[in-house]
Design brief:
The protein is α+β, with helices and mostly antiparallel strands. The chain contains 13 helices and 43 strands. It has a 16-stranded antiparallel β-sheet that branches. A 5-stranded mixed β-sheet has the order 10-15-16-13-14. A 4-stranded antiparallel β-sheet has the order 3-2-5-6, with no helix packed on it. The longest helix is centred in the C-terminal third of the chain and has 20 residues. The radius of gyration is 33 Å and the shape is elongated.
């Protein structure tokens, strides 16, 4: 009977407190500008001391239901407005809230400097913040271009969609020394190890703020970031709700002699919706289309000394235009004439008519080889669910496809390449767990330099042993000798020789040219210009913040693991018929302590990272902030950073027309026997070539036969390959190591007279183990006796020449 009574009374017990403990209060209303009466979107509506609240939609309306007992307060806050508090004593559907516009300097909250929210004035290191208001008012085609206007930032622009920022270091296209994070995801392309601008990233309608850390930040973010760390944060779907759209237009190539005026078009749309402040989602799309800037620098480039020089195609037989491709193929026509004489094709005496002159092939302008029909399609979506008021799960995806131009060792047409990033993240009051992957596909991308060279080889080879008379350089040299024999000057002879050798060259705009271009650009490297890259990255990281749990210090700890999986099918990396996987992990800790009544804040951080191919690396950071007056702070810091050799630095194995690009790992050096048979630096080889040709010509004039003249020239020139002590100047590669930087900074940031914010700093950065490229020429068989001379000594020179 007792059990029966208990069970039968249970529904009554559950119903009794419904009007008390489980009472709901429904609130709705509108937030407006006090001066203009216009609605204010994205206003935060929060019950202080709780995680309960909501945000206004695009029309300034809010709607929320709470179980919080009456009475309670509601705080309304929006960017650019003074916060206001409303006392709530009963439910209401018609609340009218007005906020007063205000612009208070130094109130920005930043996260990047310490990985915890803090006022920008008390940041321990230099940091730049670009908020939503600055983004919306930016007089630029794309918000990403704003970075070029931030103090201390250099921007290198390779194409309309490909801009590369850098700070406090070495600038370049595709800067691997700058880390870029989009909602916590490293935005780098896994195969290239740098971010491709904002091609895969955030839509202009979805960007909330940008934070930039100039200089090294490896203590918090790991490898990379030796000259900058950039954080882009998207809009929270709980806060920024509703439908928004953007249409932007413009005109490019005005008064451009190379192209008529063309339109610039951008379209974007975003929609976000939250349900009971528990579940929210957003979707966005962004499409940009334009005809890219034309690279039209036709200066004569000296590839040996990496500089431009005076001259053009008519005045310089060795002309190599900066934005002309195919003219990288070269030969010394005195060399060619010598070979013709040795083969009996010309009399030895005719060699004296040929100057010691390098000649390049006639190339094609970049505008005829590269696809300038630029476009970028970005798609993104987020699902967010609050498991509890303090724990939120987020599923996020970004995908971008585009066509643009990239400058690296060569010029690359990134045609229809795409990158996707997919993330799952769990955030709590004191912790964060995150896992994401980046998937890259090069699409129809190709090397423009290789395209020009291989197109030339396709319509007429530079040298074909099976058909010497059909070879370009043989024809050029033969025609030059013919013109000289008829009394022409060297200048006229060069012009006649080029016209003869270029006979039959496909011209841009013709069907023959287009067929040749399409056939070469669709064949994979090395036989064609197409490169494959379907590399991927998998990353896992976590963070725990002990703030508020340890009374005497603020402490954070975290760790990460990352795996690169390279996949180029042998077109870029040494991965033909094998897999390359690289793992790296890291751990970090950061502690902060306030002293002297909060007038001094000390921060220390240290991180340890380990990569499969390199020894572990410690990167500490120490900083102090001194509050010398209210809202006036002096900061002092010592920071360290390091940059791992990129995946290309480690594993590239790419045959180009001028040679082969190889990575610096011991396995790559051993693969080409550069330890057992080292090469010579290019200047040493060129000195040998000049000496050899000078001696050879002198010997012929002295009456020596061709064989004797060549032998004596080789013996005499061999001395240029040795140093003052008689040792060969062979280049031996040192072990590949990560690049490191140590940086000191003293800075001040403060508010003067409540109307002027001043940020000033001085810094010094010292780099060690700087990563650079080394160009060597390797004699395939090492030192060898000169055949047919009876001389038992071994020489490197004949192979080099």
């Amino acid at each position: 009977m007792k059990g029966l009574l208990l069970h039968s009374s249970l529904p009554l017990l559950l119903l009794l407190p419904a009007s008390g403990v489980f009472a709901q209060t429904h609130l709705a209303g509108t937030v407006r500008d006090k001066n203009t009466g216009s609605s204010i979107s994205s206003t935060t509506v929060l019950i202080p001391g709780t995680a309960e609240g909501t945000y206004t939609d695009t029309r300034g309306n809010f709607n929320m239901t709470t179980h919080h007992p009456l009475p309670f307060s509601l705080v309304f806050s929006a960017i650019g407005y003074r916060s206001d508090t409303l006392q709530v004593t009963a439910a209401s559907d018609g609340l009218e809230i007005t906020l007063s516009p205000t612009r208070v300097l130094g109130r920005e909250i930043v996260v990047a400097a310490s990985r915890v929210p803090e006022n920008i004035l008390t940041s321990p290191v230099s940091i730049e913040h670009i908020g939503l208001q600055e983004i919306n008012q930016a007089p630029a085609a794309d918000f990403y271009d704003l970075m070029g206007h931030v103090k201390g930032v250099d921007m290198v622009t390779s194409g309309l969609l490909f801009s590369t920022p850098t700070t406090r270091g070495f600038a370049g296209s595709g800067n691997v020394g700058l880390n870029q994070f989009v909602d916590g995801m490293d935005n780098q392309a896994p195969g290239l190890n740098f971010s491709v601008g904002n091609v895969v990233g955030l839509s202009e309608l979805d960007i909330a703020n940008i934070e930039l850390l100039p200089g090294a930040a490896s203590a918090l973010y790991g490898a990379g970031g030796t000259n900058g760390t950039l954080l882009l944060t998207s809009k929270d779907p709980f806060q920024y709700q509703g439908l928004s759209a953007l249409v932007k237009g413009g005109v490019m190539h005005l008064n451009d002699p190379q192209h008529k005026a063309t339109p610039y078009q951008q379209y974007a749309v975003r929609y976000a919706k939250a349900f009971n402040n528990k579940f929210a989602f957003k979707v966005n799309a962004d499409y940009t289309k334009a005809y890219d800037w034309i690279a039209s620098d036709y200066s004569d480039y000296d590839k040996t000394h990496f500089t431009v020089k005076a001259g053009d195609r008519r005045s310089d037989p060795a002309y190599n235009g900066v934005n002309v491709y195919g003219d990288e193929s070269s030969a010394n026509i005195l060399d060619i004439a010598q070979g013709l004489a040795q083969a009996g094709a010309i009399p030895p005496a005719a060699v004296g008519l040929v100057p010691n002159q390098v000649v390049t092939r006639t190339g094609y302008d970049e505008k005829d080889l590269v696809d300038y029909n630029t476009f970028n399609l970005k798609l993104g979506g987020t699902l967010a669910y609050k498991i509890t008021p303090g724990i939120k799960a987020t599923l996020e995806a970004h995908w971008g496809q585009g066509t643009t131009v990239y400058t690296g060792t060569d010029r690359y047409s990134l045609k229809k390449f795409n990158i996707g990033q997919y993330k799952l993240q769990l955030d709590g009051k004191h912790f964060m767990l995150r896992a994401y992957t980046t998937q890259e596909d090069a699409g129809d991308a190709y090397n423009a330099t290789a395209l020009g060279q291989l197109m030339n080889e396709g319509w007429k080879p530079s040298y074909d042993p099976a058909n010497p008379t059909g070879s370009w350089f043989i024809q050029y040299t033969s025609a030059f000798l013919l013109a000289k024999g008829m009394g022409s000057t060297d200048e006229k002879a060069h012009q006649s020789a080029r016209a003869f050798a270029d006979n039959g060259m496909p011209q841009p705009g013709t069907a023959r040219f287009n067929r040749l271009k399409d056939s070469v650009s669709r064949i994979s490297i090395p036989k064609g210009a197409l490169f494959t890259d379907k590399s991927s990255l998998y990353h896992y990281d976590g963070l725990y913040d002990f703030t508020g749990q340890i009374p005497f210090v603020s402490l954070q700890i975290g760790g990460s693991y990352r795996s690169y999986r390279l996949n180029s099918d042998g077109t870029i990396f040494d991965d033909k018929n094998k897999k390359i996987t690289i793992g790296q992990w890291g751990l970090f800790a950061q502690a902060a302590k306030k002293l002297l009544h909060d007038r001094v804040k000390l921060t220390g951080a240290i991180r340890y990272d380990k990569n499969d191919n390199f020894e572990g690396k410690w990167t500490p950071r120490i900083a102090a902030v001194f509050t010398v007056a209210p809202e006036n702070n002096i900061r002092v810091s010592y920071q360290t950073g390091y940059q791992l050799p990129t995946n290309q630095d480690q594993y590239i194995d790419l045959l180009v027309q001028q040679g082969r690009l190889i990575g610096g790992l011991p396995a790559m050096i051993a693969k080409y026997n550069l330890n057992g048979n080292p090469g010579f630096l290019v200047p040493v080889v060129e000195a040998y070539g000049d000496k050899y040709l000078q001696e050879y010509a002198a010997n012929l004039q002295a009456g020596d036969g061709d064989g004797v003249a060549s032998y004596k020239a080789a013996v005499a020139a061999e001395t240029t390959l040795k140093d003052d002590k008689g040792n060969y100047q062979l280049y031996r590669f040192k072990p590949l190591k990560p690049e490191s930087v140590h940086s000191f900074e003293v800075g001040y940031r403060g508010i003067i007279g409540k109307k002027l914010m001043l940020d000033a700093y001085v810094y010094s950065s010292n780099y060690t183990d700087k990563l650079v490229s080394i160009f060597v020429v390797q004699p395939a068989g090492g030192a060898q006796p000169i055949q047919g001379t009876g001389d038992p000594n071994k020489y490197y020179g004949p192979q080099l020449i």
